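4.2 Preliminary Data

To establish feasibility before requesting continued support, the project team ran the inverse folding procedure on a target of 99 residues. The structure was first converted into the token representation described in Section 3, and no sequence information of any kind was made available to the design step. The complete token record follows.
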């Protein structure tokens, strides 16, 4: 199902972010907020936590409706996107450190 940016605006949104620990264990964290446009990019307004968290366009197209049975786990979100911390630009890739 294709979702337009206008479908996401003002909706409760959750990001399921996957990452690896230093011990090479796979972990996940959930970040939630209200979707809105900020500087031309879909972003999450997370209350008092600033700045807004921008969602790269290549991830926006992965948005899916959250089934009713998962809403409690995903903070009552209407939509969810799964991705990695690297895709969100929250950490740099190892190869970025080498010339």
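Position-by-position output of the design step:
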């Amino acid at each position: 199902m294709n979702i337009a940016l206008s479908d996401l605006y003002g909706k409760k949104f959750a990001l399921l972010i996957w990452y690896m620990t230093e011990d090479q264990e796979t972990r996940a964290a959930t970040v939630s907020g209200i979707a809105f446009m900020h500087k031309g990019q879909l972003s999450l307004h997370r209350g008092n936590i600033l700045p807004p968290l921008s969602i790269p366009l290549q991830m926006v197209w992965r948005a899916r409706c959250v089934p009713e049975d998962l809403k409690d786990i995903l903070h009552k979100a209407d939509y969810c996107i799964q991705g990695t911390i690297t895709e969100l630009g929250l950490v740099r890739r190892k190869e970025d450190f080498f010339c």
